[in-house]
Write a structure and sequence with these properties.
The protein has 167 residues and is α+β, with helices and mostly antiparallel strands. The chain is built from 2 helices and 12 strands; from the N terminus they run E-E-H-E-H-E-E-E-E-E-E-E-E-E.
Length: 167
C-alpha cells in the first residue's frame, strides 16, 4: 500500500492539500492564543495597591447607613474589567445632618437651605492596579483621576461621588 496514491491522497483517504490547510489553521490558532496571553508592555508588570478617597456630598442618611466598611465598590458607568474597583476600608462623616447646602431656586438663583437627613461622606477605598507617573489604572482598564465624578455602587447602595485624593 502506498502512502500517497496517484490522486494525491494520503492512504487513499485524505488529500494532501486538506492536510496542509488543517496544519496552517492549527499554527494560526496557536499563534493567536500565545499572542493574546503576552503582556502588552513587553515586560512583566506587577500591580500594586492604590488607595484613594471619594467624597460623596448630600447623601441621604439611609444610603449612608448602607455604605459599609469591607464592602466592595463598583462603578456603574465605566467598565472595570468585571471586577470591583476596590474594597472600602473607611467611611467618615464630614458634615452632620442639617447643615446648610446650596440649592437652586425656581428663578435661577441659588441659596443656602437646610438639608435635613443628609450627610457628606469621605470614603477610603483600597484597590489594586498599575501606576505610571501620575496615571492610575485599576484592574488594568479602569482609569482613576482626581476630580472625576462617577456613579458608584456597593451591594446595598448607589451614590454619586468624586475622587478627591489618590495615595
Amino acid at each position: 500500500m502506498k502512502i500517497i496514491d496517484r490522486n494525491g491522497r494520503l492512504f487513499g483517504k485524505i488529500s494532501i492539500i486538506d492536510v496542509l490547510v488543517i496544519a496552517v489553521v492549527i499554527v494560526m490558532a496557536a499563534a493567536l492564543y500565545f499572542k493574546g496571553r503576552q503582556t502588552h508592555t513587553g515586560a512583566s508588570v506587577t500591580e500594586r495597591p492604590i488607595v484613594f478617597q471619594i467624597r460623596a456630598q448630600g447623601i441621604d442618611n439611609y444610603v449612608a447607613d448602607a455604605i459599609l466598611e469591607e464592602d466592595y465598590l463598583y462603578d456603574q458607568g465605566y467598565s472595570s474589567g468585571g471586577k470591583p474597583i476596590g474594597r472600602i476600608t473607611l467611611v467618615e462623616v464630614e458634615r452632620t445632618p442639617g447643615t446648610k447646602v446650596a440649592d437652586e431656586l425656581g428663578d435661577g438663583t441659588a441659596a443656602l437651605v437646610e438639608a435635613e437627613d443628609t450627610v457628606d461622606l469621605l470614603i477610603t477605598v483600597e484597590g489594586s492596579g498599575l501606576v505610571s507617573g501620575r496615571s492610575y489604572s485599576i484592574n488594568r482598564v479602569y482609569d482613576l483621576g482626581i476630580n472625576s465624578s462617577r456613579n458608584y455602587a456597593t451591594k446595598r447602595a448607589d451614590f454619586v461621588g468624586t475622587v478627591c485624593e489618590i495615595f
